[in-house]
Amino acid sequence: MQQRLYTIKDFYFWRITLSLGLASFFIFASMYSVQPLLPVFVKEFGVTVSESSLSLSLTIIGLIAGLIVLGFLSDRNGRTFFIKISLVGSVIPFLLIPLFDSFLLLLVLRLLQGFALAGLPAASLAYLSEEIDRRSVHVATALYISSNALGGMIGRVMTGYITDNFSWETAFYVLAGVGVVVLVAVFLMLPKSRFFQPSNLTFVRDIQAFLYHLKNPGLLVIFGLGIVLQFTFTGIWTYLPFYLQDPPFSLSLKVISYTFFAYGLGVVGSPLAGWLAGTIGLRRVRMAGIIILSAGMFMTLSPYFWLIVVGLCVTCLGFFTAHSLTAASVGEQVTDHKGSAASLYLVSYYIGVALGSSVLGPVWTGLGWKGLVLLVASLPVVYLVFVRIFQYKKSG
């Protein structure tokens, strides 16, 4: 009997979705766990704001390198192995970092952790597109990305809360424990690939196929949008703790960490966006998400803390709507080397993370919160206008 792709009605659809959701939850909790701790690192290690932000941006650089390398290997050797080994490599640094009183070593281990983290995103989107029916894959992708949001939210809130009550070292040990539990669950639940077709090309031909994606104008627009979306979103959240700990708010780290619950709107927004895209069209819903994202960021200019929180919720809703549909649209643009195409999108996406976490440091120092928000909130809309003008001139 010929095997068929899983649909939303199949038990294995939900087994795959739950497995990747758990893995995604931990990977993204690990990745962004240091974001609320940046002011703590400044005080404890005596480093600058920009140097402290390297604990996130260097992890992203490691992730980008891992996406390129592991994306190739995933196309050759399968998907599930890299998903599982990613979890193993992500747990170990959380056990080692607290043992040493060295910020340099913390950065090195976070860099290596970033490379390990890449195994999941490098393989998971391609795995979903190969194993799940096209009519159901948008839902699976949206649920996977909503797990990204949930993991990023809980990781930030948990480390901020535990650090404020105990220490950042304790927070890292707790994350390691969560990782072990998730690791066991994924090893037991994740089904083997059934439709994976390994690449038989030479390494040089594989590189050429990889670079071929960069000649696809539709993909280039998607990659550029990935950079812009994450650059703006990361910029807001990276410098938010510094903004809220200073007057007139003067909030504690624990209270600041509660603002990351705004990511809950992302958990809801991603699957909702997937459903709406199937009803009224992907591009329309993505456009609405981008406008909502920018509007939410502008709301954080308010002098009232409650309105800032509302703005952060709106920001998360818009971002995860736009991001989930942008990621889903990659698979529609390519037929071959889907792992490489997905990795290229994620590379662009995480270039945005690295830039948003560190490059905006001088903007924060020189222009403060208002200058930073005005810059990043305008970029997504400006990018869309630029793309539309370019496409109009090209078609004309």
TrEMBL record:
InterPro entries for this protein: MFS, MFS_dom, MFS_trans_sf
Annotated Major facilitator superfamily (MFS) profile domain residues: 16-395
Gene3D superfamilies from the UniProt entry: MFS general substrate transporter like domains
Recorded topology in the membrane: Multi-pass membrane protein
Cellular localization per UniProt: Cell membrane
Keywords: Cell membrane, Membrane, Transmembrane, Transmembrane helix, Transport
Domain of life: Bacteria
Membrane-spanning parts: 12-34, 54-74, 81-100, 106-128, 140-158, 170-190, 219-240, 260-278, 307-330, 342-365, 371-390
Keyword Metal-binding attributed: no
Pfam families (alphabetical): MFS_1 (PF07690)
Main location class: membrane
Similarity comment: family membership: Belongs to the major facilitator superfamily.
PANTHER family listed in its UniProt record: BLL2771 PROTEIN, INNER MEMBRANE TRANSPORT PROTEIN YNFM
Protein name: MFS transporter
The organism's taxonomic lineage, starting at the top: Bacteria, Bacillati, Bacillota, Bacilli, Bacillales
